[in-house]
Amino acid sequence: MVSVAALFSVFLQSAPTGTSAGNGTNASGGAEAGTAVSRIANPAEVGPIGQFLRDLGVPYAAALGAAITFLVASVLLYAIGRAVVVPLVRRALDVRGLGDHAKRPLLRLTRLLVGFVAVAIAFGFAGYGSILTSLATIGAAATLAIGFALQDVLKNFVSGVFIYTDRPFRIDDWIEWGNGEYAGIVEDISLRVTRVRTFDNELLTVPNSTLTDGVIKNPVAYGKLRLSVGFGIGYEDDIEQAIEILTEEAERHEAILNDPSPVVHMNDEAPLADSYVGLTARIWIDDPSRGDFLQTRGEYVKRVKARFDEAGIDIPYPQVDLSGGIELTNQQTVPVRTDDD
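Given the sequence above, the corresponding structure tokens read:
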């Protein structure tokens, strides 16, 4: 204990007092440092530990007692916070149905907040209340400066928290954004970026703010997905027969649900196009994924095409009929060359 007190005495003696003259910034910083050291060396209150050390005749008993009180209070408060607050937060996250991957960064953030609160309260227990006020002022100025410098990072961080709490998508979900320009399977969600694997097996690292600022389409958010498949038949074909074929093939396909039942109607945008009559089949699939979507739609179109061929129903391609005539003016006779010429 004597050696520790001696080292602490040397530290106090070598600390700047802030009375030396200099430029404004250095003088102010030295004064703040000297004031902080003075408050540490002479705390406003002498706690029980400091009083005990003073009774033993230990030098700087008040300062040592306050330091010991601060350390013990910080450790105990942090331990209590981790034992009480962290389990409560974990239980709340479980109630919301978050997975382990999503809970991990949020629990890490909770532990950091518990540590910060523990240190702040320990300052008060140790009699460093005025020091805590000074640190809060410095911290506010530093936070403002850091906020301007790292505003994009902080924006992505806050967006990551919103993604964890709002849950617009999860790991292994198929999402689309940017008006359909980007699409893929979510592989990882962090507090700053989200990693998406495209269907061409490319990795996209997307800032979280990009996803929260725009519209995200999640086709697999629910257990069922409706597909709209368009067909075109000739004007001379039987529309009712075509609708019957579309409905029968949807009911026969094992991956297409009967509840909700398939629905076939005239195309909403172009029921009577230039070269065909538009029909749309709306079918439902269960537990959808990108692969299921493409496979089911492809198989359904093949079966319908085969039935149309059997029934003599034509799927016309766009064509343009030209009519009229061509009138020539200023006609001239072109002389014909002979071998004699």
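The first strand starts at residue 174 and ends at 177. Try to locate this feature in the token string yourself.
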